[in-house]
Amino acid sequence: MTEQVSTIREREWLYEKRAQTVIKNFGKKHINGIYVASATDAVSAIMHLIPEDAVVAKGDSLTLDQIGIVAALQKRGLNKIYNPFELNGSGQFVCTPQQAEQMYRKAFSADVFIAGTNAVTLDGKLVNTDGLGNRVAPMIYGPGKVILAVGANKIVDDVEAARKRIANVAAPLDVRRYIENQGQNEYAAIPCARTGRCSDCSHDLRFCCYTVIIEAAAITEHHRINVVIIGQELGY
Q1: Is residue 130 part of a domain?
Q2: Tell me, what CATH number does 91's domain have?
Q3: Domain count along the chain
Q4: Is residue 91 part of a domain?
Q5: Do 40 and 66 contact (CB within 8 A), yes or no?
Q6: How far apart are CA 99 and CA 35, in angstroms?
Q7: Within a domain: 3
Q8: What is the pLDDT along the chain (236 residues), one digit of tens a residue?
Q9: Which residues contact 126 (CB under 8 A, 6 or more apart)?
Q10: HEC assignment per residue over 72-107
């Protein structure tokens, strides 16, 4: 029998070291960075950052779903939550497209916007790609506070590596999620849903329409963005 060898401790050590570098560089750019070791710690950190009675809008984020932040906020019962990505027991979206669109717009006037991020560079840049822009736009402007949760597996060397990661890992997997989990089979026609790699397609339903690189916080926006780096593999 092959002996089982765990690499958890080594990975945790590496994740924390890389996260410390990112957080140091975030500080130079007036972005707040926090490192936590686990999903449980991440929920505690995020809950601490969200004031009581604050209106919270949620962007699409597998990481937030994995750590269970919406359930934690609902249990606390002190915050109004706009969640256009709520699922029913069958894994289907609760909101109609029209209702979701209304919530996307309400995110700009929310007190807090929570989401994930596709990639973080070691020098402290946030790189994200959207199909519609409803996630990246509130990151940049609108809500008084932005909280982004990210697994340490999404830390990359630079912007070029971030864009490659998004194109050839995050985007194809996200497309498959919508096909297999939400039953939206129309996305199966997107090339990366078949090949697993970006071909810079011109398909009308492509997920990669808007790429945003947040390099720093503007002078009027210092410490508005808060990034919680979690020492686990989360999201895509």
Answers
A1: yes
A2: 3.40.50.10420
A3: 1
A4: yes
A5: no
A6: 35
A7: no
A8: 456 678 888 989 999 999 999 999 999 999 999 999 999 999 999 999 999 999 999 999 999 999 999 999 999 999 999 999 998 888 888 999 999 999 999 999 999 999 999 999 999 999 999 999 999 999 999 999 999 999 999 999 999 999 999 999 999 999 999 999 888 899 999 999 999 999 999 999 999 999 999 999 999 999 999 999 999 999 99
A9: 31, 117, 119, 120, 139, 148, 213, 214, 225, 227
A10: HHHHHCCCCEECCCCECCCCCECCCHHHHHHHHHHH
Percent helix, strand, coil in the chain (nearest 5)? Answer: 45, 20, 40
Nearest residue to 58 via CA among 144, 138, 132, 173: 138
Which residue range forms the structural domain that includes residue 214? 8-230
Q: What is the DSSP string of 56-77?
A: EEE---HHHHHHTHHHHHHHHT
Token pair in block for residue 141: 């402007």
How far apart CA 138 and CA 61 sit, in angstroms, is 14
- The edge-to-edge listing of strands for the beta sheet with 56-58 is 32-36, 225-230, 145-151, 112-116, 56-58, 81-82
Q: Transcribe 99-136 into DSSP letters.
A: HHHHHHHHGGG-SEEEEE-SEEETTS-EEEEESSSTTH
- Whether residue 1 lies inside any domain: the answer is no
Rounded-to-integer distance, Cα 129 and Cα 187, Å? 17
